[in-house]
Design goal:
Helix content is 29%, strand content 24%. By secondary structure, the chain is α+β, with helices and mostly antiparallel strands. It folds into 2 domains: 188 residues, 2-Layer Sandwich (Fructose-1,6-Bisphosphatase, Chain A, domain 1); 129 residues, D-Maltodextrin-Binding Protein, domain 2, CATH 3.40.190.80. Strand 7 and strand 8 form a beta hairpin. The longest helix has 23 residues. Bound molecules: 2,5-anhydro-1,6-di-O-phosphono-D-mannitol and magnesium ion (MG).
């Protein structure tokens, strides 16, 4: 029987082969994976752990926080504070950046995360997840400021997510393809279950919240109308639709069997570029998708090229199978 490769062994071997994972980054990824393991345990306990329901508070985006949003945020902060690999962290659940306390050594990396994505699915026992993005702190000045985080997604040095579904799966890129690890609960470790993940360029499956259709822009409406027209329409084929309302789970499906995920700008809140956040939702997912041969745009530009102006900036998202993302992006430019 082939030997199981743990996340630790995978990272050590990657570090040896091409030096793509410096020691501090390896520690960071192991710490994030450990935190995800704890979050997975808390999620798994559900009502028995007293972790369901609202925390009766709001985050900086004005969204009501669930108990598990707060617990997951704390788990990630506590796990990452003391290792010496980080300079600071930023989270969907915190207004401003969180510096590593001065009693601990400062590292060279910046970590951003959405501690528990898909919050509306927590209490109904549907897949949710943690999304993370790693940047290098600019080394031209001492200390850390929020401005240090405002780097384009193309500058990420690692990105990934952990989906808490029927099984817990960690998906990772350090810029050398995408690897998936499944949590072996008996062993307590993540085991490599897929390497070199590839998204097919074509698909017959789209994901979008159809209830917002009347608020969409014309190019999005055109794209979805053509999918819905099926065999008899201009696309000449029938499409299937999925919408889990957890980006992590929708992206996981796309990395597994292809598809296109869309959360476009819409007229409900026209001053916002979209619902999803650029730095800790769209950027890490866009990089994973590109690393798996897919594409990710905001309808006009490649997501990874966007220069963030603020930490909690929002963005429209079209990602997944390359030919479909290029088609809907083309519709935005009048093609
Ligand atoms: P969250 O980070 O507060 O959970 O919000 C992000 C989630 C995504 O996971 C998902 O794609 C989207 O919101 C679902 O939105 P909607 O409820 O509008 O369908
Ligand atoms: Mg989220």
């Amino acid at each position: 029987m082939a030997q199981k490769v743990s996340l630790t062994r995978y990272l050590v071997e990657q570090q040896r082969v091409d030096g793509s994972i410096p020691a501090q980054l390896r520690l960071l990824l192991e710490v994030v994976a450990r935190a995800c393991k704890s979050i997975s345990m808390a999620v798994n306990k559900g009502a028995l752990g007293g972790v369901l329901g609202s925390a009766e508070s709001e985050n900086v985006q004005g969204e009501v926080q669930k108990k598990l949003d707060i617990i997951s945020n704390e788990v990630l902060i506590e796990a990452n504070e003391w290792g010496g690999h980080l300079a600071a962290m930023a989270s969907e659940e915190m207004d401003s950046i969180h510096l590593v306390p001065s009693r601990y050594p400062q590292g060279e990396y910046l970590l951003l995360f959405d501690p528990l994505d898909g919050s509306s699915n927590i209490d109904v026992n549907v897949s949710i997840g943690t999304i993370f993005s790693v940047l290098k702190k600019p080394d031209d000045h001492p200390g850390v400021q929020e401005a240090d985080f405002l780097q384009a997604g193309a500058k990420q040095v690692a990105a990934g997510y952990c989906v808490y579904g029927p099984s817990t799966t960690l998906v990772l890129t350090v810029g050398d393809g995408v690897a998936m690890f499944t949590l072996d609960r008996e062993q307590g470790s993540f085991v490599l279950t897929q390497e070199n993940v590839q998204i097919p360029a074509d698909t017959k499956e789209f994901a979008i919240n159809m209830s917002n259709m009347r608020h969409w822009d014309a190019p999005v409406k055109r794209y979805v109308d053509e999918c819905l027209a099926g065999k008899d329409g201009p696309r000449g084929k029938d499409f299937n639709m999925r919408w889990i309302a957890s980006m992590v789970a929708d992206v996981h499906r796309i990395l597994t069997r292809g598809g296109i995920f869309m959360y476009p700008w819409d007229k409900r809140e026209p001053e916002k570029a979209g619902k999803l956040r650029l730095m800790y939702e769209a950027n890490p997912m866009a990089w994973l998708v590109e690393q798996a041969g897919g594409a990710a745009t905001n309808g006009r530009q490649r997501i990874l090229d966007l220069q963030p102006a603020k930490l909690h900036e929002r963005v429209a998202v079209f990602l997944g199978s390359k030919n479909e993302v290029e088609r809907v992006t083309g519709y935005h430019s009048g093609a």
